[in-house]
Amino acid sequence: MKILMHMCCARCAAYPITKLMDEGNEVCGLYYNPNIHTDVEFEKRADSVIKFSEIKQFNVFYYPDLVVEVDSLEELDLTRYDLRIKRTFELGKDLGYDAVSTSLLCNLDLDHEKILEIGHKYSKMFDIPFYDEDFREGFLEGQEMIEELGLY
């Protein structure tokens, strides 16, 4: 299966991408993270994603949108999840991917149910399956992998 994986950072993406590739899927990443504040933090994450993709030998699309300003916590949630997942579905549809997923599904601190809700909403809208595996079980494994590789 050809899967486009939204990547918020290498730490959250390491486990899902490795797992999907080990299962024989063709995975491509999309680094898009408009809610990261400061250019320095954004670039550290982007650099780590790019280096990880080179090590694991998969392609990454890179959207350098830096900061999206928000006026409320509700808007912040939409920025954190909705914009990133929607952009991934748009690109997935345009490029003919079989499914779309997100590394947000690996993070233990995020609202997993909200991420699933948004992913399934865009799956219907763009007519592409949302690969909604619960990757949280591998979160610590992914963190260790990134540390061993010396990445951020």
TrEMBL record:
It comes from Mariniplasma anaerobium. Catalyzes the conversion of epoxyqueuosine (oQ) to queuosine (Q), which is a hypermodified base found in the wobble positions of tRNA(Asp), tRNA(Asn), tRNA(His) and tRNA(Tyr). Belongs to the QueH family. It is an enzyme of class 1 (oxidoreductase). Pfam families: QueH (PF02677). InterPro entries: QueH. Its EC number is 1.17.99.6. Keywords: 4Fe-4S, Disulfide bond, Iron, Iron-sulfur, Metal-binding, Oxidoreductase, Queuosine biosynthesis, Redox-active center, tRNA processing. One of its GO terms (biological process) is tRNA queuosine(34) biosynthetic process. Pathway: tRNA modification; tRNA-queuosine biosynthesis. PANTHER family: EPOXYQUEUOSINE REDUCTASE QUEH. It catalyses: epoxyqueuosine(34) in tRNA + AH2 = queuosine(34) in tRNA + A + H2O. This is Epoxyqueuosine reductase QueH. One of its GO terms (molecular function) is 4 iron, 4 sulfur cluster binding.
